[in-house]
Amino acid sequence: MSKKIAVVAANGKAGRLIVEEAVNRGMDVTAIVRGENKTKAQHAIVKDLYDLTAADLAGFDAVVNAFGVFDPAKFDEYSTSLKYLADILSGTDTRLLVVGGAGSLYTNKEHTAQLSDSFPDTIKGVPLAMGKALDALRRRDDVHWTYISPAGDFQADGERTGHYVLAGEDYTTDADGKSAISYADYAIAMVDEIETEHPHDRERISVRW
User: Fold this and answer.
1) Alpha-carbon distance 79 to 134, whole Å?
2) pTM above 0.90, yes or no
3) Sheet bearing 165-167, strands edge to edge
């Protein structure tokens, strides 16, 4: 049976590719956008994220949160927006899948060090904000969430190879010590996760080439 999904912030680079991948697989896709729908989704809800209601998201198999912000004054919205969506979906069977970040991936066996620890202060803002949002999500058992972190080098315009490696909470690399993936192949992984019969319920996973 075809999945019915919604993609929040669908007009963004990641959102558009996730929509395209899902549509190409025959899914019924609704783009949630603040303005004109620029995606290939068959339907659109034109609303600000914070204006969405439980009725708006009712009946979907999955909701993908592709929200992103790069204004330091708004970094707290990674947490507030994710909490808002989780609250709406609380107690339902609808899955919440999050386009996450790599900075919170662990770099030691004890899981006490994260990739972002090695970042210069000038670029720590986004990964720390995304990590804080993930920490809050981990404490929830009232919503069926899955958080998907990309590789360290997340390439917006990288090629679509059709290949990726699924990993867990740890920062991993290929045989050459590289950690990279394109937005297009990340979209494949996201839609695969939506389609799978054995989802990573209330788990964070990661993907790389």
Assistant:
1) 8
2) yes
3) 43-46, 28-33, 4-8, 62-65, 95-99, 144-149, 203-208, 165-167
